[in-house]
Amino acid sequence: MTMTMTSDPLARVPLPCRAPFAVIGMIHLLPLPGAPGWGGSMAAVEERAGRDAQALAAGGADAVLVENYHDVPFLPGSLPAETVAALAALTRLVREAVPLPVGVNALRNDARAALGVAAATGAGFIRVNVHTGTMLTDQGTLEGRAHETLRVRAALGVEVAILADVLVKHAVPPHGLGVERAAADAWERGRADALVISGEATGAATDSARLRAVRAAVPDAPLYVGSGLAPDNAAALVPLADGAIVGSALQRDGRAGGPVEADRVRRLMDAVRSVRERPA
């Protein structure tokens, strides 16, 4: 469950995942009420979310992240009430289904909704695609609202960690903005609690050079691989980060949006564990 904030509202919030390299498995929710693909049955959405959560837990994932992945095309601003209500109900269901830390991502960039869901359900972290700065996306121009997100978190009085993407996937940064500067802004000025570094698109492998550049720019920031971690590249990526958010590699046929398969989770966790356990 969420905890009362410390007296310092700018203190870093520790992530609830304690593993030396924490694997956060994605729960890509089926379309929610209000989305163009909504199928008309919350029971079907709940059943899939519960099965995915249990598969992630059975396969050994360290945490799970609930996301309205199938609500395409995504809204660029605030989510409607029906989407937020469904996201909250499903996050609560997942928290009750598995004994793992649970996070929320309210696509495309509604950090306030994600915080509200976390506060209502006891989720321990949120992912924010554009926390600081500006990115050009298929939803148009998205602007970070770190100033609002941290104030809302303080007002709610909850200890919810903020995982902020740096130059998020499916987006283009303004001319002249490099990954080092973007990372430093998200960490130092946006006061994110961890940074997420991804490839260009869902499932695309994260560039190891980009991870090294961010590590050099903000050595104190926890870094998460945001896309593309798989058994065949774990040896290369695991030593460069503190964790990963994984969807595609854990889902049927290795394709994002499909049901999670426990065997795929186990294979990835075995690969990660083999790197974790190597002598330094």
Describe the structure.
The chain is α/β, with parallel strands linked by helices and 280 residues long. It has a single domain (22-276), classed as Alpha-Beta Barrel (TIM Barrel), CATH 3.20.20.70. It has helices spanning 42-59, 81-97, 111-121, 146-156, 179-189, 208-217, 234-237, 262-276; strands at 22-28, 63-67, 102-105, 125-128, 134-137, 140-143, 161-166, 171-172, 194-197, 223-225, 243-246. The strands form two sheets. An eight-stranded parallel barrel has the order 1-2-3-4-7-9-10-11, surrounded by five helices. A three-stranded antiparallel β-sheet has the order 6-5-8, with no helix packed on it. Helix 6 (208-217) links the parallel strand 9 and strand 10 (223-225). Helix 1 (42-59) runs parallel beside helix 8 (262-276) and helix 3 (111-121) packs parallel to helix 4 (146-156). The radius of gyration is 17 Å and the shape is globular.
